[in-house]
Amino acid sequence: MNFIIKEEIPMIRLLLDKAGSGKTKKMIDMANDEIGNLKGELVFIDKDNRHIHDLHRSIRLIPANEYEIDSLSNFSGFLCGIISKDYDIEKIYIDDLNKIVSVNCSNIEPCLEELERISQKYEIEIIISATSENEYDASKYGHYSLLGSKPAMTV
Q1: 127 in a domain, yes or no?
Q2: What is the DSSP secondary structure assignment for residue 152, as one 8-state letter?
Q3: Tens digit of pLDDT for each residue in 79-126?
Q4: 8 in a domain, yes or no?
Q5: Helix or strand run (H / E) with residue 115
Q6: Secondary structure (DSSP) of 7-25
Q7: Total structural domains in the chain?
Q8: What domain range is 71 assigned to?
Q9: Does some domain include residue 41?
């Protein structure tokens, strides 16, 4: 009997850095680079639509400011609504989570847990950027894949 071993892929990837450090450009570049390699759809959620011309035309940009997202619960419902409309979404990019949902690095954990639950349930990879003005403890986010983030140095 042959068994197929499915490689464990991190479903949540984080890009945490200071404001003005180029997180949005990196997210746009990553999304544009990946779009040609996907079989499914790629969704890019941003706080507004000002980056519409920076994204490849096959990427679906959703400006979050057009929806009344004022809580984690609303954001969770918003994401599930996007997923229910398009069954073949493979990846979702969420740029600057702090400006879409009222979270910061000190209270982001419940939000990440909810996003992880959604990503596992629907088998969708979610890539998130968030502003962190202070260096953070990388061990706190150890089970997530960290992308180019600058963890705190331990001495």
Answers
A1: yes
A2: P
A3: 999 999 988 999 999 999 988 887 766 667 888 888 899 999 999 999
A4: no
A5: helix 109-122
A6: P---SEEEEEE-TTSSHHH
A7: 1
A8: 16-146
A9: yes
Which residue is listed with tokens 């759809």? 41
In a domain, 47, yes or no: yes
Phi/psi at 17 (5° precision): -165, 175
**C-alpha angle 154-145-130 in degrees, rounded to nearest 5:** 80
Phi then psi for residue 111, to 5 deg, are -65, -45
pTM of the predicted model as reported, rounded to 2 decimal places: 0.84
- At residue 38, the 3 state secondary structure works out as coil
Contacts 24+ apart (CB under 8 A), 5-11: 9/125, 10/125, 10/144, 10/145, 11/116, 11/119, 11/120, 11/123, 11/124, 11/125, 11/126
Question: φ and ψ at 131, to 5 degrees?
Answer: -85, 130
Residue 18 has a CB neighbour count (10 Å cut-off) of 13
pLDDT digits (tens, 9 = 90+) for 123-146: 999 999 988 766 554 556 666 666
**CATH no. for residue 61?**
3.40.50.300
Tokens linked to 26: 């990196």
Residue type, 152: A
Dist CA 146 CA 120 (whole Å)? 18
